[in-house]
Amino acid sequence: MAIEHNEIVSLLSELECRTNFSIKKVTEYMLPKLKEPFYLYLDGKQAQLVIRPAYEVFKADLAAIEGVNAKAQYCHYSEMTRFPKRIQKSVNGIHYGLAFSFDSKEAVKSFVEKLIVINQG
Q1: pLDDT digit of tens for each residue in the chain (121 aa)?
Q2: Distance between CA atoms of residues 27 and 114, nearest Å
Q3: Is residue 56 a contact partner of residue 118, using CB atoms and an 8 Å limit?
Q4: CA 120: distance to chain centroid?
Q5: pTM for the model
């Protein structure tokens, strides 16, 4: 069973991830003490964390965390402005990233902790 949007919001706050803005279905966050952006995206009723496509090399490691579900396709959304663009349907391109959904709070916590370790080298 997927974790609810508001549960992820409260957990990200507990983990000291800071929020920059919230527009429509997306909220931009930064990892604690790092300048690494990621997004909380609400796709219908399912909340997903979206990270930069540069993390594709770590996708299998992140998906191996119990309760973490990697999405097969890229997540595209125009408000994810810190991410690169790619041509999908429009001529100008659209921002995109790797999306993950979660089965539990523990999975979200482990995912964020793993991202921090990856960013610290």
Answers
A1: 678 999 999 999 999 999 989 998 999 999 998 999 999 999 888 999 999 999 999 999 999 999 999 999 999 999 999 999 988 766 788 999 999 999 999 999 999 999 999 999 7
A2: 20
A3: no
A4: 18
A5: 0.94
